[in-house]
Design brief:
Lyase, Ornithine Decarboxylase, Chain A, domain 1; 24 strands; globular; eight-stranded parallel barrel; nine-stranded mixed beta sheet; alpha/beta; about 475 residues; binds pyridoxal-5'-phosphate; TIM Barrel
């Protein structure tokens, strides 16, 4: 592959177009440990390694694009959450962030529980041997078949999301001669995203039963009367990519308020409270996520204080981090294709994937960083936009990024923090073949989800 420099692209000294970026980083070769998986490093030649394996070797063996997952990091993060919450609380990994059978086994081994929200996720969890009583089943529109399967399997809890579902689950459980443990998901009128939370008017969404107007209390009233259900607690999930704990503070206050009302009305102290997931990670160096032990301490204190105030026994707490566990543990490895400088604007760097393997930029305006990983470079930084190969101008992976000015076709670049909501949201747009997930650990790599093939695509097309 030629490394010859393309015509000089716009440099940072030029007038820069509007965008969400600051000055180029002092050292483009540096890898901020905040955004890269734990074992990521550069070897003496400047090639990036993970788990002791170079990205050039990974690209050669498994092709690009590929998601490369640092197993040691995944396990360490899972363990950190488990340890932080101790034995008086439960950590449910949110499978929707990324789920595969290998991940299920790691979770099982590290003592975490698992959230699923579809029949497919449930099937994956069960087929990897996760004990059913450590699985929670979520979703705003579980089908009767999914509910029956979950009840038959003996899942530890089903999180009820509507009045209709209360009746549906009770009926199915009863017809199977079972009493299903359930939580009731409520909306507390708090929505949190990154650094802000809004404490009003966010019941206008499809999930949960509003606390407002006594609806949640009515849901509990009905559920308590049904023989097929054992109501074990209240569930609240307030948002995603949250850094600020004040949203949880308000949510916990309101959930405990409901627990108190339930105690006063029914003489029942529900034993569990689930505060959901949504804890933020660093996608760029500007993000400062909290450590699991800080989060555990804060949440435990909030719930304990609120319960003391309400003279309630402190319920068992559970949390559901997805992104915060898997997000930072993987990066997407791409090969650079066309490099197109647009005079006075920026250089478009095309990679061999795009919105089919990372929809978050297009969907949420998500921010990512990117680095040249197959070598180091002393070239001047150039402002780039990393784009995919799809027929769609919104097919952007990294909107604003500085890469070395000598970047050329054949170079490998990597986008860190793509462990969550990338493979799990991947599509076959343009009949793209979804990339593999390669797990690395202590000098060994193995495919945990293989790359799709054209045969896979054609198998579904019955002609
Ligand atoms: C999505 C979701 C989570 C996980 O969110 P993260 O941002 O990945 O931590 C947890 N609980 C529920 C109910 C969810 O819908």
């Amino acid at each position: 592959m030629s490394r010859s420099a393309h015509p000089a692209g716009p440099r940072h000294a030029d007038v820069l177009p509007e965008g969400h970026y600051s000055a180029p980083p002092a050292d483009l070769n540096a890898l901020d440990p905040k955004v890269w998986a734990q074992t990521v490093d550069r070897d003496e030649e400047g090639v990036v390694t993970v788990g002791g394996i170079s990205v050039t070797q990974l690209a050669e063996e498994y092709g690009t694009p590929a998601y490369v997952l640092d197993e040691a990091d995944f396990r360490a993060r899972a363990r950190a959450w488990r340890t932080a919450f101790g034995t008086d609380a439960d950590v449910f990994y949110a499978g929707k962030a990324f789920l595969s059978r290998a991940v299920v086994r790691w979770l099982d081994e590290e003592g975490l529980n698992l959230d699923v929200c579809s029949g497919g996720e449930l099937a994956t969890a069960l087929s990897a041997g996760m004990p059913a009583d450590r699985i929670a089943f979520h979703g705003n529109n579980k089908s009767p078949q999914e509910i029956e399967r979950a009840v038959r399997a003996g899942v530890g809890r089903i999180v009820l999301d509507s009045f209709q579902e209360i009746v549906r689950v009770a009926h199915i459980a009863q017809s199977l001669g079972k009493r299903q443990r359930v939580q009731i998901r409520i909306t507390v009128g708090v929505e949190a995203h990154t650094h802000e939370f809004i404490a009003t008017a966010h019941e206008d969404q499809k999930f949960g039963i509003p606390l407002a107007g006594g609806q949640a209390a009515e849901a509990v009233r009905r559920a308590l009367q049904l023989d097929g259900l054992e109501v074990i607690g209240i569930h609240s999930h307030i948002g995603s990519q949250i850094f600020d704990m004040s949203g949880f503070e308000v949510a916990a206050h309101r959930v405990v308020g409901l627990l108190k009302d339930i105690r006063d009305e029914h003489g029942v102290e529900l034993p569990e409270i689930d505060l959901g997931g949504g804890l933020g990670i660093a996608y760029t160096s500007d993000d400062d996520p909290r450590e699991p032990h800080e989060i555990a301490k804060a949440l435990t204190e909030i719930v304990t204080r609120e319960c003391e105030g309400a003279k309630l026994r402190t319920p068992r707490i559970s949390v559901e981090p997805g992104r915060a566990i898997v997000g930072p543990t993987a990066f997407t490895l791409y090969e650079v294709g066309t490099v197109k400088p647009l005079e006075g604007l920026r250089t478009y760097v095309s990679v061999d994937g795009g919105m089919s393997d990372n929809i978050r930029t297009a969907l949420y305006d998500a921010e990512y960083t990117v680095a040249l990983v197959s070598r180091t470079s002393d070239a001047e930084p150039m402002l780039t936009r990393v784009v995919g190969k799809h027929c769609e101008s919104g097919d952007i992976v990294v909107k604003d990024a500085f890469l070395p000015g000598d970047l050329a076709p054949g170079d490998l670049i990597a986008v860190p923090a793509t462990g969550a909501y990338c493979r799990s949201m991947a599509s076959n747009y343009n009949h793209a073949l979804r990339p593999p997930v390669v797990a690395v650990r202590e000098g060994e790599a193995r495919v945990v989800v293989r790359r799709e093939t054209e045969e896979d695509l054609l198998r579904l097309d019955v002609g």
